[in-house]
Amino acid sequence: MINFKVGIIGAGSIAATVADTLTKLDAFEPYAIASRDLAKAKEFADAHGCTKAYGSYEELVADPDVELVYIATPHAFHAEQAKMCINAGKPCLVEKAFSYNAATAKEVLDLAEEKKVFCGEAMWIRFNPLYKLAAKIIFDNKIGKLNHIQASLGYDIKDKERILKPELAGGALMDLGIYCINLSAMFFGSDPANVMSTCRNFNTGMDAQEVISFAHEGGRTADYFVTAMYKAENNARFYCDLGYIEIENMNNPERLRVYGKNKELIFEATVPDTQISGYEYEFISARDAIITGKTECGEITHRETIRLLAHTDMLRKTWKMPFPMEIATDQAK
After folding, report:
1. pLDDT per residue over 212-255, tens digit each?
2. In whole angstroms, what is the distance from residue 173 CA to residue 177 CA?
3. In 104-254, where do the E strands start and end?
4. The pairing of beta strand 243-248 with beta strand 255-259
């Protein structure tokens, strides 16, 4: 079987996990790595089994053997690098958050549609089998109507440049909160009718911690706690008329439990024994989309990516937290 060759832009920790995952995934390989530091790229290639190492992103995109580019740089650079791939006719899968705001994401995805080149967001919870199972239980009305979602997500990442620096589109919302916002989109579908939030900032001006509350039509609600200061519970719960679903480790699910009205456990599931890291599902979906001539994955469409970033735009506007590139764009108009 011929392997599907993936090129990776950015040689950070997530890129390393992705490369190791692709090494173990049937019919895939981490073919190439690109960093602006060639020595770093070569070190990464040696450590993670890449055939080619490049000292520029442009060289990787120009490699005719690369069939899909995975973009694993900070949020601030995603749109520019995705456009580079699309203009070269190279399919790309972009790490979440897809970009730093909805306007730049729309520019990229409109270009992908125009050029008929695949471009997708690597929002891995959309592809995860436990979330798909939770959705089936809820949409099949197994425990009644979904009324409320509650989730927390937090890690001690307060020293990370990608979190602290405005010029990298930092903050807890773009790194972690985007997962929570996805839950509402996945399970309620509609945009919230009302939003309340409160935010605590780092001294760099980026958000360190927030509480976000969504009110959806029909009296449905969601409450999310997000922090880059310390590890939180990191679980999600979906409260329905006849019970609730709990997902452990909400951004990379490990276990799903379904409880009845009296809190009795009625069903339990864990990740498949064959799961490698959880990243593999998005690559399988992207490959299948590319092979069948699609420009997006069914799990998270272009429209959804733009819609979710519009929510982050709205929250940052409420918090008076524009990114420097947005200020520069506004001044240039």
Report:
1. 999 998 999 999 999 999 999 999 999 999 999 999 999 999 99
2. 4
3. 119-122, 146-154, 194-201, 207-215, 221-227, 236-240, 243-248
4. antiparallel
The answer to whether the Cα torsion of 32, 120, 291, 276 is positive or negative is positive
Q: Which of 101, 108, 62, 103 is nearest to 83 (CA)?
A: 108
**Which pTM value belongs to this model?**
0.96
Task: Give me the amino acid identity at 76.
Answer: A
Tell me, what DSSP letter sits at residue 298? S
End-to-end Cα spacing for the chain: 52
- Which amino acid type is present at position 213? S
Q: Are 44 and 64 in contact (CB under 8 A)?
A: no
Residue 289: closest CA among 87, 51, 43, 67: 67
Query: Which amino acid is present at 312?
Result: T
- In the 8-state DSSP scheme, what is residue 293? T
What is the β-pairing status of strands 92-95 and 194-201?
A: unpaired
Alpha-carbon distance of 148 to 158, in angstroms, equals 30
Geometric angle at alpha carbon 310, from 304 and 313, rounded to 5°:
150
pLDDT digits (tens, 9 = 90+) for 47-105: 999 999 999 999 999 999 999 999 999 999 999 999 999 999 999 999 999 999 999 99
Q: How far apart are CA 68 and CA 93, in angstroms?
A: 7
What count of other Cβ atoms lies within 10 Å of the Cβ of residue 136?
10
Rounded CA gap, 268 and 257, in Å?
Answer: 4
Instruction: Report pLDDT digits (tens) over 293-304.
Output: 999 999 999 999
The type of residue at 32 is A
CB 226 within 8 A of CB 244: no
Q: How many residues does the chain have?
A: 333
10 Å CB burial of residue 263 (0-12, 13-18, 19+) is exposed
